[in-house]
Amino acid sequence: MLQKKEFYNQSALKVAQDLLGCFLMRRIGNEIIRTKIVETEAYEGLRDLASHASRGKTPRNAVMFGEPGLYYVYFTYGMHHMLNVVTGPKDHPAAVLIRAVEPIDELDLKTNGPARLTKALQIDKKFNEFPAFSKKSELWIESGEKIKKSEIISAKRIGIDYAGEYKDKLWRFYIKDNKFVSKK
DNA sequence: CTCGGGATTGAG
DNA sequence: TCAATCCCGAGC
What we know:
The protein is built from two helices and eight strands, in the order H-E-E-E-E-E-H-E-E-E. By secondary structure, the protein is mainly beta. The chain binds a DNA duplex through strand 3.
């Protein structure tokens, strides 16, 4: 079942946890690659210094201020694409970064990290502003396994040491003991 | 230790 | 138009 647009119209913290266990689906030609989301991070609002939206609306981050359920894909460090899904109501800038997925069919895909998964699934900036709630995107999200609260670990987010008081927020979530989580 | 890789951004 | 920025592996 596709996750509906309303699923994303909640706080990033809620969506980040609810996305664990969901299926991230990618169609390339006639092939459909199925993966399960195992690690996410929440970027919530204008005050979160780790978020691209913390300095206001710019051409790059404009999609974060728009409708929930759209992808925010950006290129960084001169080499990496990052896949996010916009959350919350319109005009509230927030998103969830998908950090790692578990491949279901092609077990040798390297998807244990935000840059690795976009490379493995051939995700680039053309997906920016595409909807996660439509198969027309050729990249969509379906409901999946229900993950128990006791299986969800909260941790500090990765690579945001510049974010002041926000760098220690436990806004990274992953499935306990899952081998495809990017770090321990 | 320094540099490169690149899009993004704000300053000049 | 330019310089700073983000991270980190390669090269000195």
